[in-house]
């Protein structure tokens, strides 16, 4: 086993306006989506999954996909991407000016039918056409492996099946593989192992790790993935993105929690955490529910609270000491 | 840098009935404490911080410490431990039949005053007497380093001050050092580094890592600590243990979330996760609030949901496929 190689710089890709909203009962206003996407770009997020081009009946919350893409002010250097499930969606995404298109396929037929109304085989056949159209448009084409750890209907998914699908994606010419722990079922040992295996097998293909925090392992999985060399991680503003199979459970790992951890670890992200927190606050206000974001609740590490008056003792005794001096004092 | 050495077996030490309850506004009934402690022992938890022997005015929720210790049915092989802040508490803990006593000192004077009403220097002087009394009684004596990453009043705490205090503990003859990320401010890189450093400097002294999930990094910190060789981790049933400085924020890492992650990683704990979940349910009912436990909310990984009727297509087409066969099918 080789030593971990933690990347010095991580790209945080935000998916709140796609994965975050897709299971929301409340329709998020287009104005707010545009404001948040622009705000995230201004805060330094360089890749934003801005929407999805799906059947509006299936995903009402991204029925405004074309409008969102048309209205957002584009910041140079930022990629505005979208998820699609079929050729029609891919064509709409290209037409709308997306910088990248991600097609998602689940590892089990039953979930792929639930998600995109196709068998895995049908989705892969359609991928050939989608890849041609998207790459023909000169934009990024990505293949997402959904349920890379487990399926809500069939349970545990073998790691080898993940590599089978990844290999098919590479054969079909994807620019990037998304490894998605869509249900938050993965543990950090497995996530690290899968990231390492995929990078060794397909070193020329870029990799994004898409993490959910459903079972509290979101940041552990982010950490293990980075140790195995992952340099781009998906996250969602405010932790938006509940899973319909687990009411009350958190969804995507929160972007501000991830950026906060990376800040503590002195890993460069280029993201302004305080600006993100303001945006998360706007989201919380619009949703009128608490966010699945620990930093939104607790604040950043090392933020100082006022010292209670009862602890302010006599002048001859300093109460807030320079902790560096502990060794000398005791 | 050497490769991670993940222990094959982890001891999970539960602190819900001490750290978990100490900031609760509601007084948890003694009956329930006894039931939960006995239930955790039956579920396979081998070390339980059952209470604290503090001034009942300062910590009303452990005013029943003597009664709890007297009433619990002791399971052979399980250690029932307690936290103390001073000599009087240590004597009470010994009298009550505790198997181990943990004295806590914060790394900053202001927080040590807030927590135990003494300067760090005073606490260390008292530790000499406490160590003598506790070790004289033939039970485990532990020194806990509180605020090992940061202080709510003074901010970031240097790593070197952690080692200063650890060294003093070792000089005073502690059996075990507790490394406590008391405010959940630590990141996994730092936690792993500190665990590794302490183990290298004092290889003969046992180490417990005490983790909070205040900023979502609980399981990441557990993972990194284990990679660095930590073999005993503190956690709290139901994630009980909010921080008074961060209303709404989660406190200790949840025991069932930690045991769940270890189960996925195939690391032995000897703990029955389903039994723990039943106990967490009792706690949630008694508190009448949601728990800070992801697994309590979302269920275990790989639990299967029923397949929606619309996905049950014709007999000629299997909807739930054997995912192992994916490679052949597509």
How is this structure best described in words?
With about 325 residues, chain A is α/β, with parallel strands linked by helices. Chain A is built from 13 helices and 10 strands. Chain A has a single domain, classed as Aldolase class I (TIM Barrel). In chain A, the strands form 2 sheets. The first copy, chain A, has an 8-stranded parallel barrel with strand order 1-2-3-4-5-8-9-10, surrounded by 10 helices. In chain A, helix 9 links the parallel strand 9 and strand 10. In chain A, helix 2 crosses helix 3, helix 8 packs parallel to helix 9 and helix 10 runs antiparallel to helix 11. The longest helix of chain A is centred in the middle third of the chain and has 17 residues. The N and C termini of chain A lie far apart (about 45 Å). The C terminus of chain A is likely disordered.
Helix-strand layout with pairing:
Two copies of one chain form a homodimer.
Chain A: E1 11-14, H1 16-22, H2 30-42, E2 47-53, H3 65-71, E3 79-84, H4 87-95, E4 100-106, H5 109-116, H6 120-136, E5 140-146, E6 150-151, E7 155-156, H7 159-171, E8 176-181, H8 188-201, E9 206-211, H9 218-227, E10 232-235, H10 255-264, H11 273-287, H12 294-298, H13 326-329
Parallel strand pairs in A: 1-2, 1-10, 2-3, 3-4, 4-5, 5-8, 8-9, 9-10
Antiparallel strand pairs in A: 6-7
Helix pairs in contact in A: 2-3, 2-11, 4-6, 8-9, 10-11
């Amino acid at each position: 086993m080789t030593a971990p190689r933690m990347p010095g710089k991580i790209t945080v890709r935000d998916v709140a306006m796609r994965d975050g909203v897709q299971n929301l009962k409340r329709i998020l206003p287009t104005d707010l989506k545009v404001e948040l996407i622009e705000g995230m770009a201004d805060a330094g997020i360089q890749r934003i999954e801005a929407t999805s081009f799906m059947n509006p009946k299936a995903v009402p919350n991204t029925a405004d996909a074309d409008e969102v893409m048309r209205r957002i002010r584009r910041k140079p250097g930022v990629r505005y991407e979208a998820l699609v499930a079929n050729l029609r969606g891919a064509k709409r995404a290209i037409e709308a000016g997306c910088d990248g298109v991600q097609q998602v396929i689940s590892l089990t037929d039953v979930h792929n039918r639930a998600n995109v109304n196709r068998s895995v085989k049908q989705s892969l056949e359609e991928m050939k056409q989608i890849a041609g159209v998207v790459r023909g448009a000169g934009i990024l084409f990505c293949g997402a492996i959904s349920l890379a750890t487990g399926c809500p209907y069939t349970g545990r998914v073998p790691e080898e099946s993940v590599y089978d699908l990844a290999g098919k994606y590479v054969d079909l010419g994807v620019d990037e593989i998304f490894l998605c722990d869509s249900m938050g079922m993965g543990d950090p040992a497995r996530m690290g192992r899968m990231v390492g295996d995929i990078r060794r097998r397909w070193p020329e293909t870029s990799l994004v790790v898409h993490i959910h925090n459903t079972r509290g392992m979101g940041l552990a999985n982010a950490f293990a993935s980075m140790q195995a060399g992952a340099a781009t991680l998906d996250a969602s503003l405010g932790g938006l993105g509940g899973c319909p199979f687990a009411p009350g459970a958190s969804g995507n790992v929160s972007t501000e929690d991830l950026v906060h951890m990376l800040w503590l670890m002195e890993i460069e992200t280029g993201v302004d955490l305080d600006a993100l927190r303001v945006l998360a606050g706007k989201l919380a206000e619009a949703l009128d529910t608490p966010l699945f974001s620990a930093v939104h609740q607790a604040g950043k590490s090392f933020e100082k609270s006022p010292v209670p008056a009862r602890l302010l003792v006599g002048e001859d005794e300093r109460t807030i000491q320079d902790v560096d001096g502990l060794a000398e004092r005791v």
